[in-house]
Automatic annotation (TrEMBL):
Pfam families reported in the protein's UniProt record: Phosphodiest
MF annotations from Gene Ontology: hydrolase activity
Source species: Streptomyces griseus subsp. griseus (strain JCM 4626 / CBS 651.72 / NBRC 13350 / KCC S-0626 / ISP 5235)
Official protein name in the record: Nucleotide pyrophosphatase
Tagged with keyword Hydrolase: no
Signal peptide: 1-34
Keywords for the protein's UniProt record, in alphabetical order: Signal
Amino acid sequence: MSRSLSRRSVLATTAAAATAAAVGPLATSTAAHAAPALPDGTSKDKVLVVGMDGLRHDVIAAAKAPYLTSMMANGTYGTSLLYADPMAATSSGPGWSTVSTGVWPDKHGVKENSFAGKDYAKYPGFLARLAQVRPQLSTYAAVDWKPLDTQGTVTPGADAKLVLDGDRDGYTGHDATIAAETESILRNQNPDVLFVYFGQTDIAGHNSGAGSAAYRDAIHVQDGYLGRLLTAIRARPSYATERWTVIVTTDHGHTDSGGHGGSAIEERRTFVLAQGPGIAAGARPADTRLVDVAATVFRQLGITPDPAWGLDGKPIQERSTDPFEILYPALAARADETGIPAGVLGWTHTAPSGWSVVNSAMGTGGVAEWRGWSFATDEFWSRSQRDQSRELNVRSRGIFAVADSDEWDDKASSGPYDSTLVTPAYAVGGKSTVTLALTTLYRQEGAQSARVLASWNGGTPVEVKRYTSDVISRPQTLTLDVPSGAANVSFRFHYTGSNNWYWVIDGVKVTAS
């Protein structure tokens, strides 16, 4: 088909299209309307993103899902936890906005399903972004939760789209139609990038709960649709010369009894599963986040994001080089914490090589896990107490450092919370400036203090920054002039409190120039 075909959209919202489609994971249904004609693709690098609404990843193993299981074995599978209020509810509007835009809700602005405050003009979805920077690509979107189209979350920028109304007509038939039309396009046309959405898993979760047979059956059906799409890709006559990446993800989890929107760990569960060129087989990274979908799409298409886009995500194959990531073998199960399952390994007082924690002024007693600076995972720390904004630590990845006087004081203690985290010494000889970069989540209360200090050549630490108000998971940079004669610098993070809040440090990087 000629590349000169104008960019256009195809809208289908009739129930007849859905009822004409066969239902079931291996169905070979044909929609009641012809698939739209896409412009001929221009890239050998191709990407299919499959969104499965409300799919709790820890239920996949209990469902009959051979295609998802195969992708896990042959691709990279990263699980993570979402935010909660007040950043955003664990709902579809914020979740799919995060997937599509590659930024967190404090940027894209969607906090719940009204989409009030959305800022897709500044943070468009990845299909809209591709239409700006690579308009020659052939793109397609299919959804049956209509707000993903009407609100501009997913479909803008697509050359063609299929939009059905699952809320009005039911998702079972419309999911089947989406599978059939996408399968046809993959077999008979030459698309470059596709985003397809299936909604019945979320409905089954609401109606029957994530622990139900109906929920597992819905996963089985959608797994079958995924299998049909994968088979259609491999059946393409030009498949041998193409480089296909397939990404599967979700927007939020579900409680065992059904429902989402709150801060329970089951509602916050998400995953990104990807298979394709340069993506490791069988990898289970602990530093993947939901914002990584869009960044992975760009990487697989050979597109380098402009820093002005403000993406929060990174490609799924790109690992964090944070100094705390080496601590996984040291992570332990709960000691004094009671609300964290015994099998969750997620904290340690062991500092990375070259780092240290100074507790000489620290009080005695308290909750063992949080006595002085600790190193923890989101799965562990955010379980310690819900709804105190620990869920907002979204820009930390993997293991981070945390000083938490609030949780420490939940067990009898005496004396103050006073702890200092000390970095290694970094060479700065012959340099004019040194920059400390990090990510911080900080909550201020009362007389607590949070200070960054610099020590040149091992001398007396000097305060170079003090936090006096909340910083909700933000990257920070601090650039200092290097004093004459300084050969090295180390930094100290000194936190004091008395049953106040907490300070999180992650992503520490020091560069001199």
